[in-house]
Amino acid sequence: MKPEQLKLYLVTDRPLSLGRDIAWIVEEAVKGGVTMVQLREKDCDTREFLEVAQKLKSLLKPLGIPLLINDRIDIALAVDADGVHIGQSDMPYEIARKLLGPDKIIGLSVENMHDIEEANKLDVDYVGVSPIYSTATKTDTAQPFGLEGLRKAVALSVHPTVAIGGMNTKTAYDVIKTGTNGIAVVSGICSADSPCEASKELLEIINKD
Amino acid sequence: MKPEQLKLYLVTDRPLSLGRDIAWIVEEAVKGGVTMVQLREKDCDTREFLEVAQKLKSLLKPLGIPLLINDRIDIALAVDADGVHIGQSDMPYEIARKLLGPDKIIGLSVENMHDIEEANKLDVDYVGVSPIYSTATKTDTAQPFGLEGLRKAVALSVHPTVAIGGMNTKTAYDVIKTGTNGIAVVSGICSADSPCEASKELLEIINKD
User: What global pTM score does this model have?
Assistant: First the structure.
């Protein structure tokens, strides 16, 4: 994985897609310039999860945009995804790496400075610094980092970082200025009237200066 | 897998364990004579699922009692379980087999005669005929087979069968008399005052005659 692929990272969310097809959201977002996609499904059965993952794989592979699967290593293996994103309550990194092999991307959520220090000891491909702001997307998250916390997190991490939680057109500029490699966007794209336009707008902000 | 290992098959259920430790339930049930164990977790996070699976693996491996994981092939791979049990909404058999390799046990739920005909074309190790009776354990299940339906299912299946749904000390005798290889018990053991005694009692009924 190239760190610049973290620049505008779409994380899918079924409820926040407002009843619209997830593959459509991704397709539109890709047209708008997203650089990486994470399929996150929390409440659907394995068969449905697999079918969406297969669709996204067909869509993204020809474009060279990495597809990561949230948490579910079985789904990642089944569709030969580019990797997984794991949280602190998911499979431990060592087991995930063993199951996926050395070449797959593994991203890890870090919720505080201690998590970052622990992640520094691991061969993860990036860390997702979460959350930067408090957000309605996830209700079980830790204390927000804020901009100052993110700046410290970026400095502390030996791995590329992507900022998540409250990323939108209002926050993106300040967040990118901390030096983080990118922003991971959920509702800002999934719930947008036009996921394509929303992605374009975010990318312009990220690329400003 | 030997078909006789299906004889008294414990399927775990967290809510039906009434707040008691799942590893304790399994340990007691094993003392009482269960011949196979399926760890089924529907609402816990991956880390917790993994930790219970690791505990059960340590407990069951020295005893030679197969441990199967419901649905989650990643958990099965992570703990080197003996196999998985998949339902009609889980990973398709072919992908499960590819991920697990030729030597692992794969059991498949069948909910009607058509499912059995389809399963007959696959190299599954057993089919779980579900449900025999309507039950409070699962609310999303198909029309019950009943005893007569089970008899037909056993005759139709080219694979060993295990009956599930409403298996208890009242139903076990009639069910075993249909010729099925075993019964899969959920609440009859998980919710019993003594999972050990309940298992013993069920095994006596199964072995009667």
Answer: 0.95
